Amino acid sequence: MKRIFLIIAMQFLPWLPTQAATLASQERVQVDLTILAGGGYDELLQRTHAVADASDGQEIRGLLAAQSKLVTIQRIRILPHRDGADATEIPAGPALGQVLAALKPGDIVDYAINIHHPQLLPQGQQSLHYELRRHQIFGEGRVNVHVPKGSTIKVSASGFEQQTIQTTAAGRTYSYVVRNDTALPEEDNVANREATMPTVRVSTFKNYTALAALIEGEFAKAVVHSDVLGQIAERIAARADNPRAAARATYQWVQQHIAYDAQAMDANGITPRSLPAILASGHGDCKDHVVLFQALLKAQGIESIMVLINTESQYQLSTTPVVADFNHVITYLPAFDLYVDATDKYARFDRLPLNRQDKPVLWLDRDGKQARTPLTADDSSVTDAAYRLDQGSMVVSSRTVSEGESALETILVRDAMQGQDLGALLEKSLVARGLRAPRGTMRFDGDVDRMNFTMNFSSQLASADHRVAIAFNPFFGKRSTLGGMSLGFQAARRANGFLCPPRTIVERYTLVMPTGSKATMPDAVDIQAAELAYQSSYTQQGNRVTISRRFTSTSKKAACDAGDYIRYQRFARRVADDIATQIRYSWP
After folding, report:
1. Are 19 and 85 in contact (CB under 8 A)?
2. Which end of the chain is more exposed for a tag (fewer CB within 10 A), N or C?
3. How far apart (Å, rounded) are the C-alpha atoms in residues 452 and 125?
């Protein structure tokens, strides 16, 4: 589902002073959102920005590309000195592009852009979500929302330091101010990003039930008679032994016959195409998938409910409902108490992808019910690898079996490598790890339920005196290895919440050395920390060394708060220390 709002990256947010002499090195941002009585709104973005490096010029040049009937540049001025002297206003045209291309660190750019957002939602409804990005320094940030007199629109905000409301004969102005003199670091696996971003919400929806009613009405427009649909439903039902089997077969039919196409959407972003149009084209976005899936199920007597969800970082809803709270739509099957997503060609019928688990959802039914998708604790990867060492050479055979989200990660790695020489890719990776003259192959097989990754290679050892150290980690997935898991907690602290779903990672290695070889073994490790556990063991019998490592998280939620990070980070650091411990050995 397309979001019904436009966010311009913070590098495009300007501040427009009245006189050049007032300009200083301090960054400033102001955004004025004017709600129009006839529908839609205007967005005036103003900024004074000190150029930090050459990339800033490239970002600002993006302003030129954005110009259209809806986007106009009101002013761009270039100030080569931080004291505000010698301001030069640059008119639109070729000269502007040349000046922007020549920006130098220390130059100050002062510019203003106006964006007109036409009325998109039906029935005169308004929905606006705006946030300032703390990942960039913007100094003083100010957002003003101008509401016309008599409007019942609701305005709320979070993350600002000052909030005021001014009432005049023309209407109400809500003003919000915050300072951001230090950029927040970019973080991976973010949960609930809005908790750290100054955010303004503007909405005419009384509650989420009203929002659901509007979108349900738009979805109903897609349901028109189709003889082809009835024939498809009959064929599916004829091959199914029971309702659940019929629902699964219908789900698979939609997955296989309707390609996902995010561009297949109408102008307002919330109205699906008609059923005949979807079937004729063989592709559609999430709205098209769910209305077709529901129609096929209904033809077989199976009830379903379309459900709004957010696939990004939000794991909670606000008290002010906006359409931007949701960017996707899936299906709920009441008879089986099951949420399914037929838009994802790799998703299983009985399990949602991780970014759709433990998420707030809004049912598109009469009651507009708010609910939460379940958290599925079946994400695991098991690696078994055998290393055989001889004087000057090494032979490795490994196999990683992945299930759940780790299986999906393996599939995506496989897809990224399609059409390439897997042997050459493997050899390049091994050379980067310090091995000499490697030769080998790797292979992927399986499906979304269970994926296998096998790797076989031989190489020359890097050490001339054969007194070497070896660390074990034959796979390269972030979720599928202990090393990948540990990398996610390298930072000492973080600002945002983070993903912390349940999962299991097992790695077992066998190292066979020439008879009479000696190995220095690390101590076994056993760490227990609430829902987190890690055990490792190292044993030697004759010339065979066995390493076993197991990480388990029994977390009951998909996302943790930033306050939980220190505990996870300390645990991950101890795991990282253990897996970095090398097995040192010498020849007889």
Report:
1. no
2. C
3. 50
* Tens-place pLDDT, residues 31-50: 999 999 888 999 999 988 87
Q: Which residues contact 282 (CB under 8 A, 6 or more apart)?
A: 257, 258, 259
- The pLDDT of residue 193: 86
> Cα–Cα distance between 123 and 135 in angstroms, integer?
36
- Looking at residue 267, which CATH number applies to its domain? 3.10.620.30
CA-closest candidate to residue 557, choices 285, 191, 207:
191
| 37, 143: one domain | yes
Burial class of residue 419, CB neighbours in 10 A (0-12, 13-18, 19+)? exposed
Taking the CB of residue 521, how many other CB atoms lie within 10 A of it? 15
Indicate if 231 and 113 belong to the same structural domain: no
Report which secondary-structure segment, H or E, holds 499.
Answer: strand 497-499
CA-based radius of gyration for the chain: 29
CA dist 484 and 326 (Å) reads 30
- Highest mean predicted confidence (pLDDT) among 23-27, 56-60, 467-471: 56-60
The arithmetic mean of pLDDT across residues 127-148, rounded, is 92
Residue 99's CATH number: 2.60.40.3140
pLDDT digits (tens, 9 = 90+) for 322-344: 999 999 999 999 999 999 999 98
Q: End of a domain among 314, 344, 372?
A: 372
Closest CA to 45 of 7, 76, 13, 81: 13
- Helix intervals (H) in 148-301: 208-220, 227-238, 243-257, 275-281, 286-299
Pair 283, 407 in one domain: no
Cα–Cα distance, 92 to 371 (Å, whole number)? 51
User: Is 86's pLDDT higher than 80?
Assistant: no
| Burial class of residue 476, CB neighbours in 10 A (0-12, 13-18, 19+) | middle
Are residues 84 and 52 both part of a single domain? yes
Residue 5 lies in a domain: no
Instruction: Name 464's Cβ contacts closer than 8 Å, sequence gap at least 6.
Output: none
Residues belonging to the chain: 588
Tell whether 541 is covered by a domain: yes
Number of domains in the chain: 3
Q: Is residue 3 part of a domain?
A: no
8-32: pLDDT as tens digits? 222 223 222 222 333 334 588 999 9
Q: Which of 141, 169, 204 is the last residue of a domain?
A: 204
Range of the domain at 275: 211-372
Which residues fall within 8 angstroms of residue 348, CB to CB, at 6 or more apart? 448, 449
Q: Do 415 and 537 share a domain, yes or no?
A: yes
The answer to whether residue 128 is domain-embedded is yes
Q: With pLDDT > 90 as the criterion, what percentage of the chain qualifies?
A: 51
Q: Are 287 and 345 in contact (CB under 8 A)?
A: no
* CA 176 centroid distance within chain: 28
Rounded Cα distance between 505 and 235, Å, is: 42
Q: Are 533 and 571 in contact (CB under 8 A)?
A: no
Distance CA 403, CA 504 (A): 10
Read off the pLDDT band of 100 (50, 70, 90). confident
This prediction's pTM: 0.86
Burial string for 259-291 (b: 16+ CB within 10 Å, else e) reads ebeeebbbeebbbbbbbeebbeeeebbbbbbbb
